[in-house]
Amino acid sequence: xxxxHRMLTATQYIAPLMANFNPSYSRNSTVRYLxxxxxxxxxxxxxxxxxxxxxxxxxFQAALHSSGRIVFGYKEIPVPVLQISASxxxxxxxxSDAFMVLNPSPDVPExxxxxxxxxxxVELDTSRISxxxxxxxxxxxxxxxxxxxxxxxxxxxxxxxxxCHVLQRFC
Length: 171
Hints:
Blueprint: H1 8-11, E1 13-18, E2 21-22, E3 30-35, E4 39-49, E5 58-65, E6 70-76, E7 92-104, E8 112-123, E9 133-137, H2 149-153, E10 163-164, E11 169-170
Antiparallel strand pairs: 1-7, 2-4, 3-4, 4-5, 5-6, 6-9, 7-8, 10-11
């Protein structure tokens, strides 16, 4: 999206492993990306947890395919993810999306208040994340494949569409 806000890591993310990583700790630590037009890959290579460098380095990646498929690959996970402290930074893995609406503020008529609506979250069981593991997400059909609300609502797909008062349309 085009809006950066402090709730971004809580509501909008694609996270193979979110934690308090410090890529500047070692000269061997890198965060690299590749985009070949069909797949966009981000790899965290030999990254360490801030203040917990003795735990060892982590290597993992996220691959976003143009088909909508997402693959998380874990090469080196030196400790169980459940042992990573969330006191300095959230520890999670999965997908989340939200949208923001600017509403008029009742206190100051000329100002607007940002409201974030998280509409979907998939949380991975972090106890299942280990070295040489992978997770694949395959997209379900959505209304976006239809050309109009009418064709979406009359489709054979099993959506749970409902009226959204905020957007004034079916979602």
